[in-house]
Amino acid sequence: MKISFEKKDIEKILQDLATENGKFNKIYPGESADRQPLHTVYGGANLFKSTLAAKFGDLGKRALNAYAPDFATLACALQFPGFERLPKGKSEIEALAKEIENDKEAFEKKDKDIYLAYIVYQRVLEKLSREAVEDFRIDFEDGFGNRPDDEEDATAVQAAQQVAEGMKNNTLPPFIGIRIKPFTEELKARGIRTLDIFLTTLSELTDGKLPDNFLVTLPKVTIAPQVAALVDLFEIIENKTKIASGTLKVELMIETTQSIYDWSGDIVIPKLVDAARGRCRGAHFGTYDYTATCNITATYQAMRHPSCDFAKDVMQVSLAGTGVWLSDGATTTMPIGPHRAAKGGPDLSDEQKAENEKVVFSAWKLAYDNVMHSLKNGYYQGWDLNPGQLPIRYAANYLFFLSSLNDVSVRLSNFIGKAAQATLSGNEFDDAATGQGLLNYFLRALSIGAVSMNEVEKTGLTLEEIKSKSFKVIVDNRSKK
User: Fold this and answer.
1) How far apart are CA 176 and CA 45, in angstroms?
2) CA angle 98, 100, 105 (to 5 degrees)
3) Which of 351, 373, 435, 458 stands the most exposed, by the fewest C-beta atoms within 10 Å?
């Protein structure tokens, strides 16, 4: 075989390609295999307590027990696949649950939809008891409002004290952070002051330690210098406290049209992330502020509005492969019935109970449809604002992951086998990104409690392989055997 190129002819070309490929890989290292929370709960800083996560779990279970005390009622309220075949009577539902429990494997083959409805409900109950809140943001912005400086100063100190207490007693959710006010001209000084007070107080109480997965959320970002300013402030705080250098991370809120495109028509999001100098962990979409900047009236401001899908598509295309997490916004229709029985007063009438149920089920179905829309479009995180939304967040996620469990299991098993064979033969397997994507499905599903380790083992993967979180590591190890 004749070859036209000599080594000396192409050395510079290869070196130049290596340099440029290296630059590309630095910007696009691939999706992170770290655990990403499936939601962020926002709550006013003045209401934050170190035990809040457990309280939210109790309230979430109470809401579920009050309006959907069994799996069939929840499946019908959310219109799971096959819900039309579910019984309505209590005794019939109990009998069906007993039949499923007696032989789950046989029932899954008999009627997968009904089986999934039952399993999802059981896992939602377990999740609410074990880890009801995955991520919480102590909010000094919209959830707190504009208050006198003395009051916000005191609240910042109090919130830091509660976080320190939660760290001591291990009662905080696995992810937590604060949202400060935006760095607009009107509010920049207040946002900076709150950041300083909170972090300085927390550092003094914890000897410089922060909770695991701590983030600072910067809202209503419009220009990269706002992000750069926050990172400058991080460096000052780290230098003047015991907080280790590089510890503080930022989460950007994309909720203005200017954070999508600038005046010249350039996409802004990469510039915002670049301004964070390696400290950007996530980008969260703010549905209602964004639609307001698009001059959409309040009646039509909703998560599934076409303008929101457009903005989120731009976010997704801009940040795919960078390792920066994406999050959708919140459903603001709360699952709260209009009638409440007065303490010591008469019980609600049947008519009032029916009206409460109608309102709650409507809010639940809206939240469920919003979450499913996000998941189908590749947004695996969103916001929750009320404990009554938690069961629905988990139900949607669990059904989403479990519905495709068997298909993805087969795909991943085959994919790993082919990749290992290619490596063993000395060939390069050129679709590792797809393999990592399939593995990330299981990592997400495992982390939120949607699937069990026994179900993951259907792929042929071991617990140790799953823990590696790396498709490449799994393939390399298998090819050596």
Assistant:
1) 12
2) 145
3) 351
- Rounded percentage of the chain residues whose pLDDT exceeds 70: 96
Query: Degrees (nearest 5) of the Cα angle 119, 126, 111?
Result: 5
Mean pLDDT of the chain: 91
Which pLDDT score, from 0 to 100, does residue 419 have? 65
Please report where in the chains the tokens 């392989």 appear, as a residue: 465
Q: Which domains does the chain have, with CATH numbers?
A: 39-47+133-329+378-389 (3.20.20.60), 404-479 (no CATH)
